[in-house]
Structure of 1D-myo-inositol 2-acetamido-2-deoxy-alpha-D-glucopyranoside deacetylase:
Amino acid sequence: MHAHPDDETIGTGATMARYAAEGANVTLVTCTLGEEGEIHVPELAGLIAAEADQLGGFRVSELTVACRALGVSDVRFLGGAGRYRDSGMMDTPANNHPRAFWGADLDEAAGHLVKVFEEVRPQVVVTYDEIGFYGHPDHIQAHRVTMRACELAGDAAPQKVYWTAVPRSVMEAGMAEFSGSTDNPFSGVENVDDLPFGTPDELIAARIDATPYAEEKMAALRAHATQVPPTSWMFTLAAGSGSDMMGVEFYTLPVGEKGPGVGPYGWENDLFAGVTLSE
Ligand SMILES: CC(=O)N[C@H]1[C@@H](O[C@@H]2[C@H](O)[C@H](O)[C@@H](O)[C@H](O)[C@H]2O)O[C@H](CO)[C@@H](O)[C@@H]1O
Ligand SMILES: [Zn+2]
């Protein structure tokens, strides 16, 4: 359950590609069309919300191409395409748009997700933590709607709910990797504790190694060209010594029992560890 087209790839693209390839039914629910995003493709600049306001429709096409690269075919929008609008960054005027996801009625929005749960019957659901990983209103709302849907769904609720996360140790490695780089995403940050995200390693529940699917993730990132320019630090990381980082994604487990794991903190390498698979 993601907020905008591109989040599925940035946060969980390798995981989605791995499970799709392994034969799991992967359903993506995206809450908005990303109407309020920036545009990093100069020839498309006129689509911006303040002008033609066509970016949402274009990002639907980017999402279609990205999910094809990930091998994911069940791609849905919460309440149907266009029901909820990208709310923009926190405390911007777009927060107050009548269809802004940030202002959605929680139970109404959760009801749309319950309908998906009742149809798909997921054993596992993935979304963001309480701060939406980095504080974007649509990410926070995606968290709230998902957790509310789990409360309302009864026997259609998942056995396990994961939240995307990055271990502090990986953040520190990333800061070291980019310390001398001109496109340092951590510029101005002295200490990993100063970052608004990052989870203590001991609170991580799963380290999903989908390294064999890193290239699928990169292809999907390239599909989101309006949001992820070729100069993005993600491409720098993928081309550098941090390339393995792109194929490994981490999660906490707020709902459900952790299955068998490895390492000092017993990290799972399978989101379905310990899950009862329906026939
Ligand atoms: C990854 C993600 O959630 N992207 C959102 C986010 O995009 C940011 C926004 O454009 C901001 O103005 C930029 O400075 C920042 O670099 C972007 O990551 O917010 C957008 C508007 O809500 C959203 O469309 C985009 O998907
Ligand atoms: Zn987002």
